[in-house]
Structure formats: structure tokens, C-alpha cells
Amino acid sequence: MIFTTTQSSSFKAEFEELLGRGKMDIAHVTGIVGGIISEIQKDKNRALFEHIAKFDNWTPKCDDDLQISQESMQQAYENLDEKLKSALHMAYERIKVYHEKQKPQSWFDTEANGTILGQKVTPVDSAGLYIPGGKAAYPSSLLMNVIPAQVAGVENIVVCTPTPDNEPNELLLAACHLCGVTQVYKVGGASAIAAMAYGTENIPKVDVITGPGNIFVATAKKMVFGDVNIDMIAGPSEIGILADDSANPNHMAIDLLSQAEHDEMASSILITPSQKLADAVKVEIENWLQKLPREAIARKSIEERGAIIVTQDMDEAIKLMNEIAPEHLEVATMSPFELLPYIKHAGAIFLGHNTPEAIGDYVAGPNHTLPTGGTAKFYSPLSVEDFMKKSSIISFSSAAINEIGEECALIANTEGLTAHEQSVRVRLK
After folding, report:
1. What is the set of active-site residues?
2. Residue 35: Cβ-neighbour burial (10 angstroms; 0-12, 13-18, 19+)
3. Residue 250 lies in a domain
């Protein structure tokens, strides 16, 4: 664990290491993933069967074995504990309400001369959602990917999830039923991305692929981009915290660990101008680690990719955090909203002492599929717009084209495009 101040001689090198935290050795797996994609494109289901046998330790007996039945999803839902069922329904409703407010609208403007300009917003026909599965399954990720697609109006939603030993995660199946998903396939990894990008005998080709995954999934998404759209290239999870003396060290410690327990590659970074808080949080982290079932994972993450940075003041802390551009950013200060205008780069911003990152993972409403590794500088959270596309609308009357057509023809002539020029001039009086 890096515990340093901006005044230390080694700080610059340590901070550069933090900025490079999201780099994945994609080149190392590109050849493997490229081979998988090629095999799916060529042999479709036959290749899928081979990949499933190799990576998930079971072999489908026929094409129908790839798909999870609606009956099994309904049964999993009915078997849910009532309190958990209620919690999932509450999460669904809150996520849906939030995303409904994101839905863009078509618009049209009419000018006095009869020109009509506008924008038509249309959902994509189909979306493929990749949801990690197996022993660690995340029904919350299913909700966060399905709901914005549904709100957008996508008619054909396909879900792929790995099922090691042909044992689908019951909680994930229950969430599928709750969301009304009907096409769920027992396919994982790069194979699933390729299947959704190019189609097989069972799995339809989609227009956009979203959802988290490991380096093989991320690499596959990057390689099929252009043939389909994707949401983002997401890496290991991360949290950044800006805090002052008003923050509770115990809360800050467990909030940092809430990301560290995801996997060894997760990053947890606290930046504060308070040496007292930094020292206290370091102690509390050790206390909490000894209580966590996933201690080994969290400890390795904290030791290798965690950081507590003590700055001269909050201005410097904000500057450093903007450079990091974290996936999740907690602002645990006396007056968090006063700092909000100065925060430029973060996937999701959690303001105040009672807003832990975990509340955003499940029930707050905003999407938890967020840019990682500093990509919050140019990526946004998954949203309804990721499942929609825009078309420009243009309509000119005779009066309108005669009003500005001469200027258009002149520009076309200057560019040497005679047909462009004449296609306008033949309409001019």
C-alpha cells in the first residue's frame, strides 16, 4: 500500500504508477481472442461447443442446450427469499425511474422559409448483454444493463453468461425473470462476445454489446467494435475518495475495501489534506481486513494497488483526483457540493458522509457500469443513449433552397465536386 505525501521524493513515480493502473496487457491475449473470434465466425455453434467444453467444463448435447429455459428462470424467481425478491424489485424500479429521465427525444425546428431541421432518435433493433456468471454472479449487473436497453425501446435483448459445469447461477436466473428477459445463453468469455457480434445458429447477431468482463471479454469487445457498437472497454474496479477531517476513518476504510474485495487488480485511493485522517484510515483498514471473508483478495489489492495520499490542501487533492479520473468518487467532506464544480473527471460521484459507493452499485438508480482506468476523462456511464442512435432530419422548400443554394453550390464548386454543385443548381430558379 502506497502511503505518501506530495512532498516526498518518490511521489511523482508512485503517482505515475497509479495513473497507469488501468492498463491491461491486451496485446498478450489478442492472438488467443482473435483465434476464438475467427472460429466462431467460421464454425458458429460447433466452435461454441468446443469452447464451452474447454473453458466451462461441460459439452452441450444439442443446439437447444445453449439456451436457458424461461421455466427455469421463473422457478428460480419463485424460489427467492421474499425479502431479497422485494429488494430486487425496489432496485429495478429505482433504476428504471432514473433511466427514464435519460431518454432523449426527437426534435424538429421550422424556419420561416420552409426549412425543417431536426433529429430523429431511434433504438437499435437488438442488444447483447454480457453478464459475468459462475460462482460470482451479479444480478445487479443484469439490471443495470437490461433496464436502459428496455427504456430505450430495444425489441430484441440477448443475454450471455458463462455457466461452469452447466450450473447457471440461480440468483441471476431470477433477475432475468424479474426483468422479463427471454433469451439467455450459457456462453461466456470472448466466445460470447463473438457469438453476439456475428451470430450463430442459435444466438442472433446484435447491434450493440454492453457489460463487464475479464481481459478476454474486454479484448473481444475491442476487436469486434466497428462490426457492432460497444459501451466501453472496462478494466478492474476502482474507488477514489476525497476527504477532510470531518470524515469518519472507519467509514473511509471499509469504503476503500468495498472495491478492493472485487479482485486483486482493483484500485482504492484516498486523497486528503489531513494527516490525522490518513493515519487513522490506515489503522482501520487493517482492522477491517481481518474481518473480511475475501481478506486475501482485498489485502493484495490494497497492498499492490491501493494508495493514501496526503496533500497540502484540498485544491491539490482535487487536482490529483481529476488526473486519476476514478470510476467511483466519494466526496466525504464537510461541504461536498461546494467541491462539485471543481471535479471534472469521474464515472459516478457520491456526495456526503452517508453516500457510500455501494449504494450506487445496487439501489440508488444511476448505472453502475462505469468507465475505469482513467477513461472517465472521455467515457460516460452506461445509459439509455448507448442503446439508441440519432438520424439528422433535413427538409428544404423551394424558397429555402433558392435562399441559400447559391452559397452551397459555390462551396461545392470550390471543392471541385461538379455533381454536388449541379445537384443544387438544377433546383435553383
Report:
1. 327-328
2. exposed
3. yes
